[in-house]
Amino acid sequence: MRKIINVPGDFVDEVVEGMLAAHPELRAASADLRAVVRADAPRPGKVGLVTGGGSGHLPVFAGYVGRGLCDGVAIGNVFSSPSAAQVYAATEAVSGGAGVLYLYGNYGGDIYNFDLASDLARAAGIPTATVLAADDVASAGPERRSARRGVAGMVFTFKIAGAAAERGDDLATVTAIARRAGARTATLGVGLSPTILPAAGQPTFTLDEGEMEVGIGIHGEPGVHRGPLETADTIADRMLDQIVADLDLAAGQRVGVLVNGLGATPLEELYLSSATS
Amino acid sequence: MRKIINVPGDFVDEVVEGMLAAHPELRAASADLRAVVRADAPRPGKVGLVTGGGSGHLPVFAGYVGRGLCDGVAIGNVFSSPSAAQVYAATEAVSGGAGVLYLYGNYGGDIYNFDLASDLARAAGIPTATVLAADDVASAGPERRSARRGVAGMVFTFKIAGAAAERGDDLATVTAIARRAGARTATLGVGLSPTILPAAGQPTFTLDEGEMEVGIGIHGEPGVHRGPLETADTIADRMLDQIVADLDLAAGQRVGVLVNGLGATPLEELYLSSATS
After folding, report:
1. How confident is the model at residue B277 (pLDDT cuts 50, 70, 90)?
2. What gap in Å lies between CA A20 and CA A233, rounded to an integer?
3. Where does chain B have alpha helices with state H?
4. What's the mean pLDDT in B168-190?
5. How far apart are CA A10 and CA A8, in angstroms?
6. What is the pLDDT at residue A125?
7. What is the Cα–Cα distance from A51 to A152, expressed in whole angstroms?
8. Rg of the Cα trace of chain A?
9. Residue to test with chain A: of B271, B273, B274, most A Cβ within 10 A
10. What is the mean pLDDT of residues B200-219?
11. Which residue in A162, A5, A32, A177 sits closest to B266, CA to CA?
12. What is the mean pLDDT of residues A65-89?
């Protein structure tokens, strides 16, 4: 396991400590450091945006706390949901009186805990709304969009809903804008190597040298195609064919393109893929 | 070779095409796209900062072209110096009448070509000065500082000299500031796996699973210690002991800390290392 860590059980806590040390614009909102918010939270009259989920995906989620983005994040263990108490701690810390929007990926554990936190928030007089990111076209067909996994596409939702909240839109408006942005977003992932959980020390699946898997999930969920590694052009064509069809795009329409890796893809290969797509 | 590329020979050109497509604040200053400058270059009366070197190190070098940083970059092939013509193209494009400072790493091929470009610039009436980054403490002892390799520490020089140039300092002043920043910067690298050149398809050296190499260079130059992979705390102690001694730091002095990877280190491990250092 080629990882620079200390004790696997301390991995997430030490990552958060490092983020807080590196970014004075963030502060912890819970004693366990698993709720992190903008240092200037709460902002009176502003809709608060809270995201969260398991660790192991940086910059998702904690990297998207900032001006014009999310106000707070709840940070779970590696690939595990944060607890309802952690989500609630973030909620309370960012609540400026205009309600709080939950923006996160469509995963069962996260939904369970964010929903519980929403009950706690309601009991405390903080209205909440929820928009789930569900952008991964490989995880369910167009007739079952709401069953899709949320992956990189949620970054657009953070940015667009974050801008709406920053300019003072109310909770219903920010929620509608976030939902519309999410509904018009489609993504597809390709993996060349498996991930290794610090606690397990073993790959989550195997993929031979020279193989690629298309449609792979952010936690190594199985994709829809496995075969020999192809050129960047062919991979981009594969991805775009499916995404363009899914969004029913017509020639001349303007789109925003996000090319990202899952942590270990060199920047060069991401730029190269941008050129070919 | 787990790389998302097309033809290895097109690798660098396609990376640059992607950067230009993604960043409208940049523009090409040569037909071969290997000189890239700020879109608003030249800025009249401002000292121009030009950097450059081989490809394969993003965000070094092209990622540091922007406001308050460098004005232009010359982009070589993977781990190869740009040509003098490419450096000169960047020089000419950023020259706003106040001279141009060359800021780059201490490597023979780069020195050769930047020096040639400087001759071309002088012939064209553009004064230049040069500051070499030489921050890697593992590459030469304190008595031979000027023989050191330039690695991540040059980012501080870009930032500090870039700020001086942005506020209107003249060439002699920006040069002196860059030199002073560089002289007070020390870095050390640790590698857990070798790099693979797209054209070669083979690792540049071998490192067994579970091993680490301390003092490794940015191109895989041999380090000063190889042994079993240690914890993040132990690695940080190793690095800091050497860096603190080299800079002759005393308790209470303030320092800027940069923790970076060489392209494939997940953000989590970098933040974790920040917490432990």
Report:
1. low
2. 39
3. 11-22, 84-94, 108-123, 154-166, 171-183, 232-247, 267-276
4. 97
5. 5
6. 98
7. 13
8. 19
9. B271
10. 87
11. A5
12. 97
Contact residues on chain B for A5, CB-CB shorter than 8 A: 231-232, 269, 272
User: Does B274 sit within 8 Å of A18, measured CB to CB?
Assistant: yes
Q: Do A274 and B22 touch (CB under 8 A)?
A: yes
Which residue in the list B219, B229, B247, B277 is annotated as catalytic?
B219
Question: What separation in angstroms does the CA of B230 have from each of B178, B214, B220?
Answer: 35, 11, 20
pTM for the predicted model, two decimal places: 0.94
Nearest CA in chain A to B274: A18
Residue of A nearest to B236 (CA): A4
Closest chain A residue by Cα to residue B269 = A4
Is B23 a catalytic site residue?
Answer: no
**Partner-chain residue, chosen from B5, B7, B192, that has the shortest CB–CB distance to A2:** B192
H or E element at residue A122 = helix A108-123
> How many other C-beta atoms lie within 10 A of the C-beta of residue A198?
23
Q: What is the DSSP track for A74-111?
A: EEEEETSPPPHHHHHHHHHHH--SS-EEEEEE--HHHH
SS3 content of chain B, % helix, strand, coil (to 5): 35, 20, 45
For residue B5, give the 3-state DSSP assignment. Answer: coil
For residues A39-58, b (16+ Cβ closer than 10 Å) or e, as one string? Answer: eebbbeebbbbbbbbbbbbb
* Contact list, A3 vs chain B (CB under 8 Å): 192, 269
B2 closest CA partner among B200, B199, B192, B201: B201
B77–chain A nearest CA distance, Å: 12
Angle at A177 between CA A102 and CA A138, to 5 degrees: 75
Closest to B48 (Cα-Cα) out of B86, B103, B94 = B94
- Check if the beta carbon of residue B218 is closer than 8 Å to that of residue B149: yes
Q: Which of B38, B43, B57, B179 is catalytic?
A: B57
- Smallest CA–CA distance, residue B114 to chain A, in Å, is 24
C-alpha span between A209 and A222 (Å, rounded): 17
